[in-house]
Amino acid sequence: MRALILALLLAFSAMPVLAQTAAEIVAANAAQIEKPSRQTIGPVIEQLAASGDPQAATILEAWGDKRLGLRKADGVFFLIEKTGDGWALTALDGTAAGTAAKADVTELKPNAGVRGLIATALVQFTLSDPDRAKREAALGSIAKDPKAEALAPLAASIGAEDDPVLKAQKERLLGLLAIRFGADTATRVAAIEGFGRDLGLDLRAALNPLVATTRIAFANDLPEGANLARELRAGRELTEEEAYDLLVAGGLAPARLTVADARKALVANLKDGAVGGVALAALDSQAERDRAYNALEAAGTVPPAATDAEVTEAVARHRFAETYAEPDPAVTAAAEAALAKIGTKVGAMQGADLLLDALSLASIYFLAAIGLAITFGVMRVINMAHGEFIMMGAYTGYVVQQWITNYTLSIIVALPLAFAVTFAAGVAMERLVIRHLYKRPLETLLATFGISIAMQQLAKNIFGTQARPLTAPGWLDGALVFNDVVSISYIRIAIFVMAMLFLTFFLWLMKRTRLGLEVRAVTQNPSMAASMGIDPDRINMLTFGIGSGIAGIAGVAIGLFAKVTSELGSDYIVQSFMTVVVGGVGNIWGTLAGAVLIGTLQKGIEWFNPSNTLAAQTYMILFIILFIQFRPRGIIALKGRAAGD
Amino acid sequence: MSALLEVSGVSVSFDGFRAINNLSFTIGPAELRAIIGPNGAGKTTFMDIVTGKTRPDAGTVSFGEKSVSLLSLTEAEIARAGVGRKFQRPTVFEDQTVHENLIMALKAHRSPWRVLVWREAAADRDKVAALAEEVGLLDALPRKAGELSHGQKQWLEIGMLLAQEPRLLLVDEPAAGMTLAEREHTTRLLVDMARTRAVVVVEHDMDFVRRLNCKVTVLHEGAVLAEGSLDHVTKNSDVIDVYLGRG
Amino acid sequence: MSRSFLAKNPSVLTFLLVLAIFTLTVTILSDAYGLAFVSTSFIKTLGKTLCLCLVALAMDLIWGYAGILSLGHMAFFALGGYGLGMWLMYARTEEIVVAALAQDVIPATAEEIRQGIATQIFGVVGASEFPAIWVFAHSFWLQIALVVLVPGGLAAVFGWLAFRSRVTGVYLSILTQAMTLALALYLFQNDSGLRGNNGLSGLQNLPGLDGVSQDRLSVWFLWGSALALGLGYVLLAWVVSGKFGSVIRAIRDDEQRVRFLGYSVEGYKLFVFTLTAVIAAIAGALYYPQAGIINPAELAPIASIYLAVWVAIGGRGRLYGAVIGAAFVSIVSSWFTGGRVPDVPLGFYTISWVDWWSVVLGLCFVLVTLFAPKGIGGLFDLVAGVRTPDRKGAALGPDDGALMEREAQE
């Protein structure tokens, strides 16, 4: 890379320096400048730009901005500026030259084409402009629209660049330009190789046009000057139909007879209830129609068109190939090699990115499922309204944001509030419904589904059917970017962190607190627990409340990236149950494993078929159904008598 | 006399706990056998293994003249092969009548299609009536099983086992919760049954075992500790140590 | 079918009588054949309700009798509808395309007709080729076979997988729900071959019956639905009356015990699951021509839950309960959600039943589960003086699906 830049610098620093001031050049080419045309003005602009006169930039800029004027009296050019009813004049060497009446000066109005040329010429000046922002903008404009002309000025500006960041950018851009517009093969190949294993999108954008191919058909030998990518054989690399289309496109064969065309020709030549000797009524099969058309073709009434046999024969007589648009084989070879190298690395990076995606989806599923891990996993209570608790949490967050407009503060308030609201709802539901249905899981399932239906409709009645926004604080906007391929948004990191916090909380609650001990006691043997002074009713109520409360907090988190609607919960309920069941009921690590499995799986399937997330969900559920065949008790199963039957 | 059931070298463990440890056991075609042992000796697990509810980690279980391995069969196939089981708590279908319970147990084809087109014939009615009389439930035939007393349910279950016509019967604590008169009736039934088939009785109650007057196998920690007549095993010092001694 | 079957099951005769009287009454009151007292759209609603009663019967067999709370039977119902809908749509479009092509000078080839039908049907999802699953759509009899075979086959495969690995109770319910969701999501895709979320439409027009008005068609379908319901009722009453019924009720209450009796529990469950799936599919095939349109939303898991709700409200474990529940809830639902019930102004808020009906239904369902597990069927017991056994709150068996004490009859 360094050597290449040095070479380029040397090449361009040898440019001749003309000992002429800008003003003299303008004067010498006055006629052309007054009425410039895009075709002929080029050399003049170049001469100005290369003059080395510091005024040249000012003059060009003024010209481009339509601030160059011609005094009608003597034909002298001035930089002009509007003042009231006239012009303030500045001579081309920068000295003030008084004023002129409006009618005395002709404004020069170069057309868009000429202005474009001027702008390009100006680039070299802006590239060395003392203002860093201007230099950066100039670099940006070159990168957006790379042109061969930018190569020389860019190379020239690197030596004087003192900002290390901009210098690196300039060197990179110079390399990219050299790939496309380098003077000879060696320069371009060196430029390509100079990038090594770089992954930049800009590099790929520069390389891809080099290896773009077109398909051609030819009779015997490859056309002169074509840069062959590979030969294509009809029937293998391309179908006969594609091959024939190439022949037609290349003018090497007549168009194929389409059904519609044949029909039209037959209708046009219908005489006395028959065409080409075939009766009209018999024309309801393709074979008869072909026969009629061939008869017409033989009689010369319709133009010849290729039938299937003719197509096969024509295809066999020709060869087909893919050729590069870029004529230089050495360059295409180097570009292919570079792209292949990049491809491998990009593949690995995409894998890493996919993993990050999967992880963040897994943490979402885990968040949605962790409340269930308590109510279903530990207490074995099927709560189909769990999704609606998630929805309640999300709506709580929305309502809080209506009152507290500071997003950070509102989230801080919403999290405990959502917990409180759903905790209360959970306790109420446990007391009123679930308590009476312990040991009747199917009835619990249906009753809680009734509650779920009612709560969804209630949310619709209160908040309407349209989605409500729950806005994340500003510091969660944006993404952590590793490179052009791998990145993860901060909100997903936050959800991941939250999932981990919940996991820790759950473990602490169940393993380290009195409540956790009592919960485990009650779920294992309620009557024994009761006889030891634990109130099972109270414990069940609290446990269910905590499980529901966690669902509420998860709802706030999920609401931050998903739209808050009354269906928010039901979108997650099946997946949540799957997460718990696949992981293994009654084990929080199982739930975690289930979430990771389902998240990875869904992302993996989406990767194979990115356009279709519906299909991904379908296949994921099918996989889960099959998975349960082989591990009916989940990934992490309780064994032996403890598992029950 | 060749054995009807032969269990050899069977082991099974739950989460590292060895419930059955290299157990071997045989019983002949028409024999009454009592199995005793302290809690956790593996009595119920032993029955679970024979009936296919639990799969052992090692060992073989073969049944009948052709020595069919029971380990590759499902619970239903084992039952059809001729192994009947009576649970500790009476398990009858409480929502159905005594008649229906017995009809279901009656030896017949068990496949869904055959059962679907099966209709009750006079012979079946007679057989059910005979069975009901044998277990003393003739008057209760049209009643729902859920309404029966505890002892009556035990008999109904025994009646269902008889209807199955098994060649081997596994009976788990048949006398638990019975009155003295009911016990005597049960003893008689079991001894009668053992004339034509093998009967294995798991029991805690020494008195009841003595009444059965049969060979006794003592289990301890998943293995056979002693075997012989009740008097013989009660004199065994090992047995006294682990069972009666702690009694 | 012996005399003793009807003698032992007097409810069958009563049911058939009520059904016959109902059908006759509706016919007499219809636009086409009588007094024009009942509108055609209401006759369609009644016909559809009969189909829902049939699928509720199937649900009662699988849940009320065999104890398997399947949340997938409305998926089979919809699959049946799709199956017949494919033929209806194909044949109907074929008529239109043939008529259109007949205007041309040159007679159309078979290929052109097929192409025309494909473009008509699949233009909406941007395709113009028939997907492979439409290969039998041209033939009524083949497609009718598919109406039974596809849902039956799916149920058999799914049931075999699920029952084989001894998935029971709520796990099975969740698994069937997942199956339904997967199927619905699949059908929502445009490249599913069934027109994505557009579904199949225009099913109310029967091919070859252009001259018959919808007035008369609706009555014909009512007859067909009533016939299917009657046959279904007799079939299921026969299935549950004998030893088979005993065995599946025994499986519901204590499947382990049934295994030790020598019955292969998995085989019975699979049999019942598949049979009920087929009945559901037939009900669906009769329902959707009356509805006129079917789309993947019909497969949403919630539909199957509603099915369970109907059976529970009617009273599970008795066939007439399922029929009453389905008829009652679906008619009351359509009454409330149809906007025909006046709103209740409370001064500060007006209760609009279109919005609040779901809330009421959901809560009703909780109340029925909690306080009236016998559902509406329990009223018959009250009249007949049947008491519930008092067993101090214990269920009748150890399994999840077992009858509750208060559901049983003494």
TrEMBL record, chain A:
GO terms for biological process: amino acid transport. InterPro entries: ABC_transp_permease, ABC_UrtB_bac, BCAA_transport_permease. It comes from the Bacteria. Residues 1-19 form the signal peptide. GO terms for cellular component: plasma membrane. The chain crosses the membrane at residues 354-374, 407-429, 490-510, 541-561, 573-601, 613-630. GO terms for molecular function: transmembrane transporter activity. It holds the Pfam family BPD_transp_2. It is a multi-pass membrane protein. Keywords: Amino-acid transport, Cell membrane, Membrane, Signal, Transmembrane, Transmembrane helix, Transport. It is found in: Cell membrane. Belongs to the binding-protein-dependent transport system permease family. LivHM subfamily. NCBIfam families: urea_trans_UrtB (TIGR03409). PANTHER family: ABC TRANSPORTER PERMEASE PROTEIN, BRANCHED-CHAIN AMINO ACID TRANSPORT SYSTEM PERMEASE PROTEIN LIVH. This is Urea ABC transporter permease subunit UrtB. It comes from Paragemmobacter straminiformis.
UniProtKB/TrEMBL annotation, chain B:
One of its GO terms (cellular component) is plasma membrane. Keywords: ATP-binding, Nucleotide-binding, Transport. GO terms for molecular function: ATP binding; ATP hydrolysis activity. Residues 5-246 form the ABC transporter domain. InterPro entries: AAA+_ATPase (IPR003593), ABC_AA/LPS_Transport (IPR051120), ABC_transporter-like_ATP-bd (IPR003439), ABC_transptr_urea_ATP-bd_UrtD (IPR017781), P-loop_NTPase (IPR027417). Pfam families: ABC_tran (PF00005). This is Urea ABC transporter ATP-binding protein UrtD.
UniProtKB/TrEMBL annotation, chain C:
Signal peptide: none annotated. It comes from the Bacteria. Pfam families: BPD_transp_2. Keywords: Cell membrane, Membrane, Transmembrane, Transmembrane helix. GO terms for molecular function: branched-chain amino acid transmembrane transporter activity. It is a multi-pass membrane protein. The chain crosses the membrane at residues 12-38, 50-79, 140-163, 170-188, 220-240, 260-287, 293-312, 319-336, 356-372. CDD domains: TM_PBP1_LivM_like (cd06581). This is Urea ABC transporter permease subunit UrtC. NCBIfam families: urea_trans_UrtC. Coiled coil: none annotated. It is found in: Cell membrane. It comes from Paragemmobacter straminiformis. One of its GO terms (cellular component) is plasma membrane.
